[in-house]
Amino acid sequence: METLPLLAIAAAIWYVEASSRGRRNGGDLLVAPNCGQLLRRYAPETIGLLVCLCLGAALRLRGDRTEVAPEDQAAWDEIQNAWPILTTADSLFAIQAYIRLILLLSAILQPSSNHSAVETTPLAGWPARFYLFAGVVRVGLLLVSPDHDLEGPLSGPTYFAFELAALPLLFKLAFGKIVNDDSRRSPLATLGKFLAAAFGVAAAAVLASQNRFPLAQDGFLNGLFTFASLLETLAAVACLLCTTFGGSASRGSFASLAHVILPIQQALSTYFFLTAFDMALEKASVGYPLTLLQSAGALELGLLLLSCIAHLALAEVQEVPGGAASRPLAETVF
Length: 334
Prior knowledge:
Shape: globular
Distance between the termini: 28 Å
Largest sheet: none
Number of strands: 0
Number of domains: 1
Radius of gyration: 21 Å
Number of helices: 14
Strand content: under 5%
Order of helices and strands: HHHHHHHHHHHHHH
């Protein structure tokens, strides 16, 4: 796939960095993962993911209850044969929603301390605002447009509940008093951020209006589907900027977890757009939505991987105020 080179590059950089750190510390070049330590450190997140996996498995075993018109039955059978486990590619979005909610709950439920804002990066602030905007668009589409709902066993009220539950958590991360440091910045810097964000949203809106899938009769709703994905690309840009220039963006064990989970979460969406549609759909669309979303998804995945690499590099040289050293990403995972 087109994204495999990015993953290979990220793995190679991680390997070189971990190896060089091992040589500097006089340790082995390769250190086996301590699974027991990882499970203890991230026990709540592990339990949450297991619960979501059990829920997804139960829904899958219940069977697909999607109503299909007789004339579309042959195409539907072909889709199910192509996805024998998940039934449809739409299930990737449902799994993404499961992972997103667990990650957000982990961010919100981090122990309170003077460094809470540090612990919730890279989700806090502007990245969360873009993710919140995208979530509101998705929930709105689910409410008003059945044509934009998922198909398959993981669709329906369960998927909607996960998407809806993520909104208040994203709002807390986006505008909470702990993570909102705009008041501590100069008015000019704050204005510059708002103008840059407004320009990005406006550019995404223009692109979405010119590149729409024919999923529903309403062209505006079809544009919103594209718009939601482009907003998440803006969130990845904000995540990279916050990690690289945020000063404290690479501190805290949760930051390490988030930098690992976010690319995995985005890989599901990227894989969907690379495999779920063919070019025949784009010929019936307005503009080139498939090409746009495939490119945007690959770009978003690359940006999140770069954020992870930046976190890996910066975590080693930064120290938490008060003298406690930050744990590098390699030490968190290995």
